[in-house]
Amino acid sequence: MSQVKLNTQAPEISLQDFKSKAVRLSDYYGKKNVVLVFNRTFT
Amino acid sequence: MAQLRQDYQRFVELDTEVIVIGPEGPASFSKYWQDHQLPFVGLPDPEHTVLKLYGQEVNLFKLGRLPAQLIVDRAGMVRYVHYGKSMADIPENQELLALLAELNQEPAEIIH
């Protein structure tokens, strides 16, 4: 399984949030830093 | 994620968005966000497309997945990567906030 490397371009993410709004990682370019959290299961 | 919720404002002050991604569906996310009043972005990834792309390990011997956090700067570059070795292996928010403060000092460079 690939792991993302430091100081490389982050792979684009394109998903809908749980309110069905489209969210893309590239939406934040030039605007904000992003912390991506891949969480443990939440129940 | 309670810790993240508590510190969320500090991330906002550093011009940072927090996005949580997981294999649960939108209904689970929606309920969890409501139950815990979470302010950050939640992205359901039930098809595992992003999870596979970012290489989150599936720990076959335990339920759930190992945690991972990344910081992506304004140019879309990965500036911090942490793949947890155990379920509890999660960096402190302070570590992330300190790095974000440093990133914000850098001159803006947009890569097209």
Structural write-up:
With 43 residues, chain A is an all-beta fold. Chain A has strands at residues 14-16, 22-24, 33-38. Chain B has one domain: Glutaredoxin (3-Layer(aba) Sandwich), CATH 3.40.30. Chain B has helices spanning 2-13, 26-36, 49-53, 93-105, and strands at residues 16-22, 41-44, 68-72, 78-83. A two-stranded parallel sheet of chain B has the order 1-2. In chain B, strands 3-4 form a two-stranded antiparallel ribbon. The N and C termini of chain B lie far apart (33 Å). The model of chain B has no long low-confidence stretch (mean pLDDT 88). Chains A and B meet through strand 3 of A and strand 1, helix 2, strand 2, helix 3 and strand 3 of B.
Q: According to CATH, what is the topology of chain B? A: Glutaredoxin
Q: Biggest β-sheet of chain A: count, sense, barrel?
A: 2 strands, antiparallel
Q: What percent of the residues of chain A sit in helical stretches (DSSP H or I)?
A: under 10%
| Mean pLDDT level of chain B | 88
Largest interface: A-B, 36 and 63 residues
Helix-strand category of chain B: alpha+beta
Strand residue percentage of chain A:
25-35%
Low-confidence stretches of chain B: none
First-last Cα distance of chain B: 33 Å
Q: Strand sequence of the main sheet of chain A, in spatial order?
A: 1-2
Rg estimate of chain B, integer Å:
15 Å
Number of structurally distinct domains of chain B: 1
The number of distinct β-strands of chain A equals 3
Topology:
The complex is a heterodimer of chains A (43) and B (112).
Chain A: E1 14-16, E2 22-24, E3 33-38
Antiparallel strand pairs in A: 1-2
Chain B: H1 2-13, E1 16-22, H2 26-36, E2 41-44, H3 49-53, E3 68-72, E4 78-83, H4 93-105
Parallel strand pairs in B: 1-2
Antiparallel strand pairs in B: 3-4
